[in-house]
Amino acid sequence: MKKLLLAVLATALAAITLSTPAHAQDNQASQAKQDNQAKPDKQDKQDQRINGKWHFVFDTQGGDREFDAEFSVDAEGNITGTWNNKPATGTYKNGHLQMAFDTYSEEANETATLKLDGQLDDSEAITGNWSFSSYDGTFKATHPKP
Predict the structure, then answer these.
(1) Tens-digit pLDDT profile for residues 128-144
(2) Which of 13, 26, 49, 74 has a Cα-to-Cα distance from 40 of 20 to 30 A?
(3) What is the DSSP letter of 46?
């Protein structure tokens, strides 16, 4: 009888122990779903921050070179916009900007692909690297002040 009582108690304890994690996981999943609904998606915030007008300053061997751009990003992270009033395209995902488009440099007197590879930081600035033809360097871009 004593062995039977111990077996019943052990079975009951095992059933309670095994069912608790599943119940806890259900609560965690439910809480995570509520948290996601309450907070805006981080990518949405980043996408909104990349949209609009930008002022780029390239660090070059001949000194700073300045350019103006305007970007709009879609839900998939594709950027369309302008670079010195000419078409420009690229991608923007998880704060990472990558662009490659043909542009004309009056100073170099040539048309070539301009490549930008940068990161949007918490101060609302994009910093990174650029390359054009045989030239390259670093850049920083900010939203122009109104």
Answers:
(1) 999 999 999 999 999 98
(2) 26
(3) H
Candidates 69, 68, 67, 75; CA nearest to 48 is 75
Exposed (0-12), middle (13-18) or buried (19+): which is 49, by Cβ within 10 Å?
middle
CATH number of 43-142: 2.40.128.120
Domain ranges of the chain: 1-39, 43-142
**Two tokens, residue 76:** 């998939």
Handedness of CA 60, 61, 64, 68 (dihedral sign): negative
* Residues forming a β-bridge with 119: 96, 127
For 108, phi then psi, to 5°, come to -85, -10
| C-alpha closest to that of 72 among 94, 55, 95, 47 | 47
pLDDT in tens, 101-116: 999 999 999 999 999 9
| This prediction's pTM | 0.68
By CB neighbour count within 10 A (0-12 exposed, 13-18 middle, 19+ buried), where does 68 fall?
middle
The residue type found at 55 is: H
